[in-house]
Amino acid sequence: MTTPLKDAIDRAHPATLPDSFRTIAFGKLLRGQIPQVLRNKAGDGGNSSQVATLETLALPEDARAALIMRADCRTGTGAGVLAVQAYGTTPGSGQIAVAPNGDIVMLTADNNEGVDVTYIPERGDVVEVALPCTASVLTIPAALTARGVIALLSANATSAAPGLTGQKIVLVPGAAPATTKANLNVAKTQVLFNVATDLVTAATVRLLVAAAADLDTLLEANSNIV
User: Fold this and answer.
1) Does 168 share its domain with 104?
2) Are 8 and 67 in the same domain?
3) Are strands 83-84 and 95-98 parallel, antiparallel or unpaired?
4) What is the Cα–Cα distance from 24 to 176, expressed in whole angstroms?
């Protein structure tokens, strides 16, 4: 007999509940698909994936932020409720935003400490890809783009001739970036580096792609778990 997995979970039969939790990857669900709460945090400056003026609340790669629901801090120029900015916006004084790579960023000069943030994470699987680049473009394997690339978490140029290697600042998806930066193209099928100066010939990138244990699909699908 088959039944939708969501119904099997609702029945919570002690003999099959562990199998249900394994099927939906329950630990990953708790980490990456329910609102997360950070308490009394301080930002870390000097993150190589961010612009130099920002400090970072670095998040686990499998729980990067999609949306900040609320944020405030206890001390600093921005003390009190922080103004949440749109994804990828460089925050100013008294502001906070989700960075292009899914970390949370604030203005370093504000020196905010004791920061509380409630945010919705971006569910997915983390995949590392090391590939050659053509004209400073890394083409993401078709198997990953078929699943759906969500975000570029980090980009490290490992070879350049005679350009610039090293970690790049991650920007929102768009056209080819300026020097020392990297981003996905709009279709999220390529990682783009600067073609005029950086001249990247190989890179290692970490991507967030659609989860293999996709909760919506699993819950609606018929299962032998009863």
Assistant:
1) no
2) no
3) parallel
4) 37
